[in-house]
Design a protein that fits this description.
Number of strands: 0
Structural class: mainly alpha
Length: 28
């Protein structure tokens, strides 16, 4: 269960980074 929740957090973090990159590209 611990590794599963860790993977979930990792995926969420990756999506946050992707969203941030999209926002920056959108501004440019």
């Amino acid at each position: 269960m611990k590794t599963f929740s860790a993977k979930k957090e990792e995926v969420q973090r990756r999506w946050v980074v992707v969203d941030a990159e999209d926002a920056v590209l959108g501004r440019l």
